[in-house]
Amino acid sequence: MAALPPAPPRVLDDGVPVFGKYSGAFGDVDLAEATLVGWPGRRARWRFKQWEHWLVVHPEVALSLAVVDVAFTRLLWVQAIDRRTGERWEHRREGFLVSARIARALHDAHTRGEGGGLTIAIHNHLAIGEHRLHVRAESRGVPAIDVDLHAACGPTVEPLSVVLPVGRGRAMYSHKVPLPVRGTVRVGERRFDFDPAVCSAVLDVHKAHYPHRTFWTWATGVGMDAAGRRVAFNLTRNVVPDDAPNENATWVDGQLGDLGPATFTTDADPWTAGTADGAVALTFSAQGERREDLNYGLVVSRFRQRFGVFTGTLQHAGEPIRLADAFGLFEDHLARW
């Protein structure tokens, strides 16, 4: 497939979303300022959902962490997963008393969440080529988690940025990229040192004016191939029309590759993820599962997020690559927001 065009300076052009699939980062993510059909002014704020999510992978441990603001509530979590045993430890805070602020853009801005002994502080700083992650989490009966990591996003790394239609007069934005990561993570008494040669972080920033009913199936993973290259992928199927651009991509040592529509099977084990044209064919071996069920009457959010290992093949820029141990997440989500 042809190379993707560079991201424009802004997500909105005279108030209209610049729909498309791009390489690189937007200078200003002003999607919150879009005027929705039938939702003028402040009412549109209640349709706006945004979050920053990180998957961090070490040979022995993996982390997922997020700061989420979905207007009617706010949610923070960090979980650590022992990759050898599948055991996991999670710290989670949810509700209006939780503080959550999502970075507007990524060149020099902060995402921060705080609540009841859990602090997640992220400095997105593309201007100097890095993201900094600091987490302190304490909960009764759960090992404390401390995170001090730097993810490098230099000029050889190509993020995927998309602006996609999700309904009449509505749009979503996402920025996704796998990065080498260095630093330390402590889980209870255990310390893990992250070597950027073999450790990776996958960033996923998301902002959208979703319709009341929405869904997605999402799979992402990162690992090393036989040649020692960092290989990652993102596959999504959601409310975006089939004939629109998508969020599907591969990366090899930071180089971005385009993918077509994604296909999934989640009704029987093992779950599988791929593309309609056969460029990707992956089988997922789950080690465990994280569930989230929110029910506020008219507002419902239910998802299953499994963690584990992807094996199979993918094509990147015409080259077939075999993955044998790509750690990742596989999620099914149904929401009424």
Question: Strand-residue fraction?
Answer: over 45%
Write down how many β-strands occur, each being a DSSP E stretch of 2 or more residues.
Answer: 25
Q: Figure out the total of helices.
A: 0
Q: How many separate domains make up the residues?
A: 1
- Secondary-structure-derived class: mainly beta
Q: Keyphrases for this structure?
A:
globular, nine-stranded antiparallel β-sheet, 14-stranded antiparallel β-sheet, 337 residues, single chain, mainly beta
Describe this structure in words.
It is a single chain. This protein is mainly β and 337 residues long. The protein has one domain. The chain is 0% helix and 63% strand. The protein has no helices and 25 strands. The strands form 3 sheets. Strands 3, 4, 5, 6, 7, 8, 9, 10, 11, 12, 13, 14, 15 and 16 form a 14-stranded antiparallel sheet that branches. The chain starts with 11 loop residues before the first strand and ends with a strand.
